[in-house]
From TrEMBL:
Organism whose genome encodes this protein: Lachancea dasiensis
GO BP of this protein: mRNA cis splicing, via spliceosome
Zinc as UniProt keyword: yes
An annotated GO cellular component: U2AF complex
Protein name: LADA_0D12772g1_1
Amino acid sequence: MSSYEDRDKCHFYYKIGACRHGDRCSKKHIRPAISATIIVPNMYRKTDADNPQMVQENFDAFYEDVFTEAARFGELQAVVVCENKNDHLSGNVYFKFASPRDAHAAKDSFNTRWYNERPVYCEFSHVTDFRDAVCRKHDANTCERGDECNFMHLRRPTSKLLVELEKAQWRQNHVQ
Ligand SMILES: [Zn+2]
Ligand SMILES: [Zn+2]
């Protein structure tokens, strides 16, 4: 790839899967024709509660729901959820499959569904390595940009739930 092309590409769109300028960005946003990762923008809505335990419990229920639904289409390598508050990242859910073919099947199916009384909108995403996309400061609770940060602020499921989901997926893919 030439350096000219590199300069022309929107870093945020390619590395984080969403850019605050959206379609009005002066740099290029070219959707991948196929990818192992799909994105559903603005899917997760944080529970409006002061009780952090309740927020986490509701999140875990959401996470289990979407993980289980996506896992029907094939092996998942990652499901990540953003809890940023800015429009382009708020509640974004990324599903990374082992196979682009499975991601394609999931995308086609999701695009026919409704979630929370809204039609689901799902597309392929360039993001395959979330390490470059995640805000490390948020993980350390020190992000000075807060909810408006342009890197992913992830909300994670409780580790017990994640272990259960991964075990269930392993059984599904290894026992016929
Ligand atoms: Zn952009
Ligand atoms: Zn941040």
